[in-house]
User: Which sequence fits this backbone?
């Protein structure tokens, strides 16, 4: 059987190109730098999920929105992480984007075609692939420019403030969001928290702090490290390895599984369609756990395979397959030893942990027990994605995985979740104000 392996040219897509400004640009009004004390909706997190949610609410007439984000820029932290990895393309195809469906918005594929002259021949080929219904890969540069376009068009920039949220306290008729000495009270709050890096097991080293010579995937790698060891089997690990090889470093790659996994998407594409999500409807909790466990496994884009195989063949990359890490120990001259399950020790200048991510469920923000977490997943209403124990608080993003399936953590899954949440919020606001449009549509906050 012949296996199609795409060429790795897309991995070198340009970054930092100039893009045409969005058609609407309205800076925040003078004197409006302080976070408002009240709003109709507070969105916690301004990543792709927060951007999609705010944009959908804007179309439903909900304009009194406050987005609180630790970075203070729509999708800012998302792209900072990407640039730390020197990532040039997204795994998501062109049909996956944070824009709003059902309205006359410019979608990601439209935006790329409008900027045809700025694209490389390889990138243009991907657009043709997308138009023909085949797998396509989106350059980070295109996606970032599109996110800026969406944020400006829906006035998300104007409604985003830098703040580190410390707590979300719901009552029977409102939600108070506490952040950095300020509080915002609103009828509804939407948690778009994304995922955080997965911490190493507590027994890998002594003490609570990461030992010298060890870092995580979203931290810069020391330039003077000539010998790098990467632990993990996912896309972040692949970027770290590719960067190190490009810099002339010698790399050890430790993969716990018997072999590295190469595949186009991180989950089966069927879960991005209605029929795939329907596999979750009516199934037991145990069946859903099984499906999630089978899909949320680390894998690498096919585009990396030719480079990885060539580097392994000439000895620049040494892959330790089927080997679990049992500890990281400091060595002389600032080096570190990675201890493997079979007793082998890999001594390296620097070790990078690319152990994946963990879902942010909201348990650190909501009062104890309110998420009603089970097996690490919050208890959400199946139709609205509201927390059952806090019906004025909703979840968009990876936290909705046990309702929407594996696609919940993906950019397109954010749109599916947003459609449910934004509609529920707009209906609730309209009912409280008693207003509807003449054609029966919800008109809230206008």
Assistant:
């Amino acid at each position: 059987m012949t296996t199609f392996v795409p060429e790795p040219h897309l991995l070198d897509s340009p970054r930092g190109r100039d893009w045409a400004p969005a058609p609407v640009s309205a800076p925040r009004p003078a004197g409006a730098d302080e976070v408002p004390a009240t709003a109709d909706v507070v969105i916690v997190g301004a990543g792709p999920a927060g951007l999609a949610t705010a944009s959908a609410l804007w179309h439903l007439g909900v304009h009194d929105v406050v987005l609180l984000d630790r970075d203070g820029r729509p999708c800012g932290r998302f792209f900072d992480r990407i640039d730390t990895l020197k990532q040039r393309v997204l795994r998501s195809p062109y049909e996956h984007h944070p824009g709003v469906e059902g309205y006359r918005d410019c979608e990601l594929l439209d935006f790329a075609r409008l900027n045809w002259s700025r694209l490389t021949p390889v990138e243009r080929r991907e657009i043709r692939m997308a138009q023909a219904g085949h797998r396509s890969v989106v350059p980070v540069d295109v996606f970032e420019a599109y996110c800026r376009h969406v944020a400006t068009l829906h006035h998300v920039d104007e409604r985003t403030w830098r703040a580190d949220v410390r707590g979300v306290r719901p009552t029977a008729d409102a939600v108070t969001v506490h952040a950095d000495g300020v509080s915002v009270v609103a009828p509804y709050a939407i948690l778009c928290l994304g995922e955080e890096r997965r911490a190493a097991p507590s027994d890998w080293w002594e003490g609570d702090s990461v030992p010298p010579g060890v870092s995580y995937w979203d931290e810069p790698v020391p330039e003077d490290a000539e010998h790098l060891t990467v632990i993990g089997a996912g896309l972040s690990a692949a970027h770290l390895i590719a960067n190190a090889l490009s810099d002339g470093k010698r790399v050890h790659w430790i993969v716990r599984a018997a072999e590295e996994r190469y595949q186009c998407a991180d989950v089966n594409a069927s879960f991005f369609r209605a029929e795939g999500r329907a596999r979750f409807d009516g199934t037991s909790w145990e069946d859903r756990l099984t499906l999630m466990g089978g899909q949320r496994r680390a894998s690498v884009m096919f585009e990396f395979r030719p480079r990885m195989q060539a580097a392994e063949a000439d000895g620049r990359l040494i892959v330790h397959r089927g080997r679990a890490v049992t500890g990281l120990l400091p060595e002389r001259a600032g080096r570190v030893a990675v201890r493997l399950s079979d007793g082998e020790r890999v001594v390296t200048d620097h070790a990078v942990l690319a152990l994946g991510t963990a879902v942010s469920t909201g348990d650190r923000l909501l009062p104890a027990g309110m998420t009603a977490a089970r097996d690490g997943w919050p208890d959400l209403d199946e139709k609205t994605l509201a927390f059952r124990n806090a019906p004025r608080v909703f979840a968009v993003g990876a936290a909705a995985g046990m309702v929407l399936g594996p696609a919940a953590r993906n950019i397109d899954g954010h749109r599916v979740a947003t459609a449910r949440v934004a509609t529920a919020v707009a209906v609730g606001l309209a009912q409280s104000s008693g207003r509807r449009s003449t054609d029966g549509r919800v008109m809230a906050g206008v």
Confidence is low (pLDDT under 50) at residues 436-440, 442-446. The radius of gyration is 23 Å. The CA atoms of residues 394 and 446 lie 22 Å apart.
